[in-house]
Structure formats: structure tokens, C-alpha cells
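Researcher: Going back to the complex we discussed earlier. I've cleaned up the inputs and rechecked each line, so this should be the final set. Can you rerun the prediction on the complete assembly and write out the structure?
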Amino acid sequence: MICLGESMHSLKLKVFLVILAFILFMLLTMGMYWWNIAAFRERLTIMDEFHDVVSDILETRRYEKNFMFYPEPNSLGEALVYLDRAEKTVVLLQPKIVEIMGQGGYETLRADISAYRKLLHSLANGDQGVAIKTRQHGTRMVESVQALLNRKKHIIHDALDRILFMPLAVMALILISITMVYVWQARKVLERLNYVQRAAEGVAKGDYEAIQHLSSEDPISVLMRSAFRRMADQLDARQEQLIEARKLVSIGTLTSGIAHELNNPLNNVSLTADTMLEDLEELSEAEVREMLGDIIDETSRASEVVRNLLDFSRDEQRPMTHLSMFKVISQTLRLVGNQLSLNGIKVEKDVPENLPDIRGDMHYLQQVFINLFLNADQAMDPGGVLRIRGRTEGEMLCVDVTDTGCGMDKKTLSRIFDPFFTTKPVGKGTGLGLSIIYGIIKKHGGVIDVQSREGRGTTFTVCLPVIGDKEEV
Ligand code: ADP
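Model: Rerun complete. Updated structure for the full complex:
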């Protein structure tokens, strides 16, 4: 069994772990974001330096052009200054250039710059024959640094895309996780609410099966299930107490009938004994024997009445056994028969002896039929008829208890199985009889149904499963 403190503890731990995981996730995301921005800033700085290389090389080419088309003797000197600056920057940026163009690309660029410098020196020394080669070389050099710049731009765009995409991806991830957790939790909450509704309805009807119908094993579900089980156990205990209380009420109601039933044999004993005392001298031995036999018979009749009453009032739980409905009804009628005939009620019994057996507790089933017969008795005026009919219906054995009494209106009919519902005056009704019957029939795996017409009468039908051929006791 899981106790409340334990469950709350594990629940708190779960909430704490979820919050911790969320904080860690946010810290990780922010760290990655910060790292991306820092890397992006560094790339922009490098890009600036690549730009410097490109513009230095372009300057070099501008002075080279000036020298060739508008002979300016200083131009070549300026060109060499810019070329040196560009080369220095290229050397400084070696790791970054290697990263983009590979070691081979870097070395080609260095070689191009050196070759170009040599060509410029040749031009400066008056070798006009290298002019065209110098221009071609210069163009190639500009192209390769432009390519370097373009590739770097590409890398920066990719990094920018990543930076822009990352918050969106994180937001989407958080939204999806929240939605999933919400849907998951909402389903669980709905499942639990449904369970509470079904279990409460089931328990109210005495059907404790519904308590098992929550399959989840999380602490809240386990807690709810065990709370319902505890409630069912307590209700069971109360139900037992109610059955006992109702039994006392039934005994009270039966008293006049039983007193009458005891009175008859006692009167007979007394009369026979008186006669014997008065006429003892004249009586033959055979007559004395007959009269003593009568006394013994009457005493047995009285002690059977007492035994029946003791059986019914005994507070003991017996295991369910094979029972014949014929026997259940006959023994019950023995308890209430006198009461019914005193009130002028005619009993018509049609319960064949050969009906299939049912599995049950004689004690409880007697209580069911005593309550039904006494209710019928109270609903009828003298001259009323109580019909008891036993029959099979598929796998069920059904007993119809029909009276020709006052019947019930729809409102009464809808409430008769509620505990403490009664239309009888104080002292006459407790409102427990039918609710107890309902519980007992449920415990036996059966059903109880009622049909009633106001002013015409009522039929209660009790159906219990018959014992199959292969079933053992
Ligand atoms: P109680 O008999 O103590 O009132 P029950 O639970 O046995 O408690 O019955 C509840 C109510 O159902 C009765 O008060 C009565 O109104 C109605 N009832 C039960 N059986 C009959 C019947 N055979 N005919 C008419 N009404 C009945």
C-alpha cells in the first residue's frame, strides 16, 4: 500500500526534476546561442581583414595600371607597398585562409603574390616584355582573393542563418514539448476524472469491480485506487452492520407471527397434557401412547420454530454453498407464513423442486425474501395475494415476487433502492430493506428488477446465476 506522504514526496521530486531539466535546457540553449554570436563576431572581424587584403590588392593593381597607361614612375613603388601589406595580412591570416581554401589554396595564393612581386620588379627594371603577363597575373590574384572573400561570405551567411534559426527551433521545441506534456497530462486527468465518476457510481451501486479500472501505476492513480478500495472495505463493513440492524427490525416484525406459531403447539401440548391428567384412569395404554406422541410432535414443531428463528438471527458469515431455491423459499415462508396468514394474505407458491441449484448463502437469501414478502404484506390489504414463481431464464434462475398491493408511482419507484428511502411512517419503515437486498444480490452475482403499477401491484424479480454442470462447490 502506498501512503499519502510517500506519494506526495515522489510527486514533489518529479516536479523538481522537471523544473531542473527545463532550467538546464535553457542554460544549454543560451550557452550555445552566446557561443554562436561570439563566433559570428570573430568571423566578421576576419571578414574585415579579408576585405583589407582585397582592397590592398586592388590598390596594387590600380598603381600597376597607372604605371602602364599613364607613365608615373612612383606608381610601381606604391604598388609594391600595398602588395607587401596584403602579403603580411595573408601571412597573419594563414590559419583562417587554410580553414577556407585548404593548405594548397593558401600556398598558391602566396606563390601568386611572390610571382606578381617579381613581375612588378621586372617592370620597374624596364622589362616591358612582362607587361601583359603582369596584368594577367594581377587579374588571377584578384580573382582568387575575391573567391576567398566570397567563400567567407557564404560561411558568415550560414552562421547568420543558424543564429536566426536557433531561437525559432528552441521555441518550436518548447511549444511541442509543452503541447505533448499538456495532451499527455490532460488525457491522464480526464482518465482519472472518468475513473472517479465510474468508481463512485459503481460503489454507490455496490459494484466494486469499477475500482480496478484505473490501469495507470503513477502515484496519484495508485493513491486514488487505494482510497477507493479503503472506502469500499468500509462500506462493506457498514453494509454488514446494516444487514444486522435490518435483521433485528425483521425479527421485530415477525414476532407476532412467530408467537402465534409457538402458541399453537404449546396450546396443543397443554390441552393434551390436561386431558391426560383428567382422564388418566379411563384411558387405555394405546390412547396414552398416542397422546404422548402428540405432545412430542408438538414440542418438535415448537423447537423447529425456535431453531429457524435462531438460524436467521445468528450473526455468522458462512461460505457460499450449492442451494436449492425451493428450499430457500420454503424455509423463508416457514418464518413469515404465519404473519402473512394473520394479515389475511393468501400465498400462491410455484417454485418447482427440480430447478437448478444456485450458489449462495442461505442466511442472506432468506433475508432477501423475508424483506420482499414483508414489503408485499405491508403493501396489501387483507385478501391480497402474494405469488411466488420460480423459473429459469437462460443461465439465470429467477424468482418473481408479485403482490396485489398499492403499487408505486414513478417517483417512488426511482428511489426505492436508495438507503433510508421509505414511504412508511416512523417506526414502521427504515428504508434499508431494498438497499440491503440490492447489495446481497450483487454479491451473489445476480440482478434485481421491479415492475409496478399504482393501485394494481408490484413484481420484484430476483435473478441469480445457476451453477453450471462442471462447476465445483
Ligand atoms: P422500508 O420497507 O423500511 O420502507 P424498503 O427499502 O424495504 O424500506 O422499501 C423502500 C420503499 O419501497 C418502501 O417504503 C415502499 O414505499 C416501497 N416498496 C417496497 N416494496 C413495495 C411493494 N411491494 N409495494 C409497494 N411499495 C413498495
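Model: Worth noting: Strands lie at 321-323, 346-350, 358-360, 385-393, 396-403, 447-453, 457-465.
Researcher: Good, that matches what I expected from the previous run.
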